[in-house]
Amino acid sequence: MAALIERRALFLRSLRIARIGQEELRRRLESGDPVVIVDLRSELDVAAAPVMLPGALRIAPEELEGRHHEIPRDREIVLYCS
Fold first, then answer.
1. Domain 20-80: which topology?
2. How many Cβ atoms are within 10 Å of 3's Cβ, its own excluded?
3. Among positive and negative, which fits the CA dihedral 21, 23, 29, 31?
């Protein structure tokens, strides 16, 4: 049980570390860093806030399995979700 708790804590820590703030993302986009933004918001979230990040690839979560090949693998990927 302790090993499971430790693995979960490490996983949650990795998620916190992997996050990127909006200012850092803006800076990277403005500097020309090769970043791909994938907008994974649900249809309800998009309807509530229809603004998209410039250049973002919009893929609904339920479409991800069938469209994952559209995501370039040669650049860093930023997933945008709610």
1. Oxidized Rhodanese; domain 1 (3.40.250)
2. 7
3. negative
